[in-house]
Design goal:
By secondary structure, the protein is an alpha+beta fold. 22% of the residues lie in helices and 43% in strands.
Length: 116
C-alpha cells in the first residue's frame, strides 16, 4: 500500500505545480498600476515656511521607464517596429531614451527596457 500512497502524492504535487505555473502573470499596466511621484514643496504661510508633500499620479507609460525615473534619459519616446512572429509580420512597441553627452556627437538614443 505504501507505493500507492507515494505515487498518489507525487502525482498530486505535479498537478499543483503545473496549475500554479499556468496562471497568467499581469503586467503593471494590465493590473492598473499608475506611476506616481512624490515631491516636497516649500510654502510660506503666515510668515512660516512649511513643507507640503505633493503626490502626482498619471498613466504616462514613458514616465514609468527607468531612465526618466533615475533622471538619466529625460527625453524618452515610444516607437513602433515590425517583426516576424509565426511567419507573419506583427507590430511591436518599444521605447527609446536620449542620453545627452558633452557634445551633439556624443548625445545618443538608446533602446530601453519597457516595464510591460
Amino acid at each position: 500500500m505504501y507505493p500507492f500512497v507515494k505515487t498518489t502524492l507525487v502525482i498530486s504535487v505535479l498537478l499543483l505545480v503545473s496549475a500554479c505555473g499556468s496562471t497568467k502573470k499581469l503586467t503593471l499596466q494590465d493590473a492598473g498600476h499608475q506611476y506616481c511621484t512624490t515631491e516636497k514643496v516649500m510654502v510660506e504661510q503666515d510668515g512660516k515656511i512649511e513643507a507640503i508633500q505633493v503626490t502626482k499620479c498619471n498613466d504616462d507609460e514613458v514616465k514609468k521607464l527607468l531612465p526618466p525615473k533615475m533622471g538619466l534619459g529625460k527625453n524618452c519616446r515610444e516607437f513602433w517596429y515590425d517583426t516576424v512572429l509565426d511567419g507573419a509580420y506583427k507590430k511591436r512597441r518599444g521605447f527609446a531614451c536620449q542620453f545627452k553627452g558633452d557634445t551633439y556627437e556624443t548625445t545618443k538614443w538608446y533602446i530601453v527596457q519597457s516595464p510591460y
